[in-house]
Amino acid sequence: MEKEKILITGASGTVGSQVLDQLVAKNQYAITVFDVNSAKAEKRFAPYSDKIEIIYGDIRNKADVAKATKGRKKIIHLAAIIPPLADEKPELAQAVNVHGTKNILETMDKDAFFLYSSSISVYGDRIETPYITIEDPLLPSPHDEYAVTKIATEKLIRESNLNWTIFRLAAIMGYGNHKISALMFHMPLNTPMEVCTPEDTARAFVNGIEHQEELLHKTFNLGGGKQNRILYKDFLQRSFDAYGLGSVDVFPDHSFAEKNFHCGYYADGDKLENIVHFRKETLDTYFAKVRAGISPIKRFFASLFKGIVKRVLLKKSEPYEAYKKQDAALMVRFFK
Question: Residue ranges of the NAD-dependent epimerase/dehydratase domain (predicted)?
């Protein structure tokens, strides 16, 4: 019996890699991956070269996209320009995230099932109202270009005459594969977070393709659940502890923004869990894996030079620079 054809975009990314691993392990589908040709993608796909079809191309090019979508009856669309690059290059984010998705919608088979990865960022700053439901208004924080592209793309999907489902992903945390960037300081320390691991997130997509009837034409909040809720300061402290970096409290006042980020708790997140049963990880298992991935030598030197490390990190803090320079425009953005 011929296997059903499935397409994954962004399969070399944090979540996409896990989706690929899980789908290959199931051995139920004829898998095609569509990605930009890069050393990272080639290395990621190499172990599966005899098990998957690899199509390299540019999602902004409709002809490239058409080659990937033709005949695929299930599409998991994860490819996107994410922060901080999305905020630094909003035109690129628009071209890839919005128009790239439009290319998929216009070239995919009309009876295919399309699963889309959106983001909690569409809800904007929820420090004062941390509990989020799918009915809440979409109010992206100022300068959050990524959220703007996600809202625009969701609109395109809903207006299409296709079979679609949208998952709005909470804070997705991998194990040591997130590069330190200025965004670390954009998030207020009292931000409520609901963490979900790449494995659990991928499982929601992989299991979701078998539940088209229950998911069809609906949007769901995808998060790790009550057991994975934490304040950003506590999450950051546990991360610092894992690396041997000491206390977060040593950063000076105004190092972290006080408003205009995103994240929160998904009050209705169990709705998706009850359908696709994707949650296996907890904050404890997450940090256990983080610790396991840090060599004793790396932890020793991080601990030894933690003061230097923190000074290097502080140089990335845009809120702190804005405060030092008394930049009124940026201070309004970052501080109450």
Answer: 6-205
